[in-house]
Structure formats: structure tokens, C-alpha cells
Amino acid sequence: MASSVMPTPRRMAAGDSGSAAISVVGLRKSYGDKTVLDGIDLRIPAGSVFALLGPNGAGKTTAVKILSTLITADGGQAQVAGRDLSADPQAVRAAIGVTGQFSAVDGLITGEENMLLMADLHHLPKREGRRVTAELLERFDLTEAAKKPASTYSGGMKRRLDIAMTLVGDPRIIFLDEPTTGLDPRSRHNMWQIIRELVSDGVTVFLTTQYLEEADELADRIAVLNDGKIAAEGTAEELKRLIPGGHVRLRFSDPATYENAATALRETQRDDEALILQVPSDGSQRELRSLLDWLDATGIEADELTVHTPDLDDVFFALTGGAGVPHQTKEDVR
Ligand SMILES: Nc1ncnc2c1ncn2[C@@H]1O[C@H](COP(=O)(O)OP(=O)(O)OP(=O)(O)O)[C@@H](O)[C@H]1O
Questions:
Q1: Fewer CB atoms near the end CB (10 Å): N or C, the chain?
Q2: pTM of this prediction?
Q3: Domains, the chain, ordered by start
């Protein structure tokens, strides 16, 4: 659980003031009677990580397939890498990389052969293809396994090879459809590191995931897709503030000060042993300011003040039609 006095975005989303890597207006897609995407709008700044969340069948993969030119939309407009998706799909294809839920890795040939095949598909000269292959295999810690059939690789290795293959074409925008599904925690963290490195190289990452923690860790902005529409979009902190359950925690070391504060502050939850008071708050600047002003005015000084926001699980359940808002505040501090 994030815990900070002033929740701030993890980093300034690169390109916030600049160009959009992907912009989408009114995107629609139906299969028969079923409307999968019911007019979605997105704007993803260049050099940022965007996470699309949603329950099974929400249409995440459909959105990725449309934006990566694998299927066409029924309506709406989209620009990817500055090119119009329907007018210039070739140019879009040249600027992007995609790794889907179903890997492009051919298990019958070696990791190195998979990479060289990719280099051929990108029409790289043989020498350049070998150079890029060696460099990427090294970068993704696959040099040792390079001459073994990919079918012998672990899930994490296959996923790394898949991303390495995507990078052969030096894409500026990468779509990662559930990149860590099925990976163990260590491999998942390795993958997160890889994604962070891609972004620090200026690549824009469009991620779909079932793991809210993953979106929370990686994404500059997150959108929750539900019933064919974007139910909410914002930074993780912004989304967490959308639903109730947040609080400000005041910790005291002096029992008398604690008692004074507890008496003066109504609607607080007390922990008399730890000398902690929890004041309900949405964590916004306005509410924090009024609490701080009130503390100053009454001369109460807490030893520590932390803001606790609901986590993304709470947000996800609330936005995607889970029963009620199953908020349960956890106190682990990152
Ligand atoms: N080719 C198709 N023909 C008919 N229906 C389809 C087709 N592809 C997807 N759908 C339907 O569209 C809906 C959205 O599917 P999609 O794979 O985009 O969801 P998702 O959010 O990626 O789900 P998951 O998290 O399970 O991967 C589902 O109901 C799915 O059954």
C-alpha cells in the first residue's frame, strides 16, 4: 500500500506535454451481437507505460489486436506512432512490436535461430542480424541457452526470448499482452525490470494485465475497461482516490497528546496500544490541507502523518461490478 504524505506520480510521464504515441477516439468493435469495444478514447504519451486492465473477456486483447493492426475496428479513429491506423497500417506496423498471450517463439528451433528468423523478417543484412541477435540474447540473459531448442526453455526464458524477438525491429511502441501471466514471482520481477529498461530507452509500452500490482508498479497511467467502455482512467493514485476507504494515519509518541487528539477528532478509528488514529480521507490535497490546518489550530502535533489510499484491487472490484466496494485497508508500507 502506498503510504506518503503527498501522493505523487512515480515519475513525470515522459511526453506529458508532448506527442501522443497512441491516440484513440471512439474505437468500436463487435462480434455478432456482442459489443466488445463500445467507443473507447485513449491518449498515451510517448515514452510512458500505459496499462489496460479489465476482467476476463473485457476486450483488452481485442484493443491490442486493433491497435497493432492484426484486426480492424468497426468504427472510431486511432493514430499509432503518428500514423493513421486505417489509412497507413504498414507504417504503424513498422513502428510497433507486439508480444501476445500466444508466443511467437518457435519451439523446434533454437533461441538464436528464432532471433535470426526475426532479423530476416525485418530485412536486416545478415551481419547486422547476427549483431543484433547476439546483443539482444546477451541483454536478455539468453546467451548460454542460445543454441538450445526454445522448447527446452522455461516460461520466463520463453517470454524473454519473445520480447527480444520483438525488439529486433527496434520498435518505438510495444504492446505487451499479459506479459507475466504464468510466470513465477522472480521471473515476473525480471520482466518488470526489462519493461522499465525499455521505457528508460524511450519506448512506449502498452500493457494489458490481470495483475493489478503489475499495473501499479509499472504504469504511468491505467485504464479500466468494463462493459466495452473505459470505466476510469488515471494514475494509480488517482484511481485509488476514486473510491472510499482511504484514511490519514496519525501516530503519536506521547499518550496525553494522543488522548487529546482522539477526543478532539471525531470519526476516528483508535489504536490505543500503538497510539495511532485513523481519520477517513480521500487523500486529496484539499482534505489534507484542512486536516493539517485543523491540527495546527488545535495545537496538536502528531509524530508521523501518513496517507493510506485503497489499493488497486479495491478500485478494480468497485469499477468492474464486484459486490459493493470490498475495501480492506492494508497497512503495509512500501
Ligand atoms: N474472433 C472472435 N470472434 C467472436 N468473439 C470474439 C472473438 N475474439 C474475441 N471475442 C470475444 O470478445 C470478448 C473480448 O475478448 P478479449 O480476448 O478481447 O478479452 P480480454 O479482455 O483480452 O480477456 P482475457 O483477460 O480473458 O484475455 C470476449 O467475449 C471474446 O469471447
A1: C
A2: 0.75
A3: 20-240 (3.40.50.300), 247-308 (3.30.70)
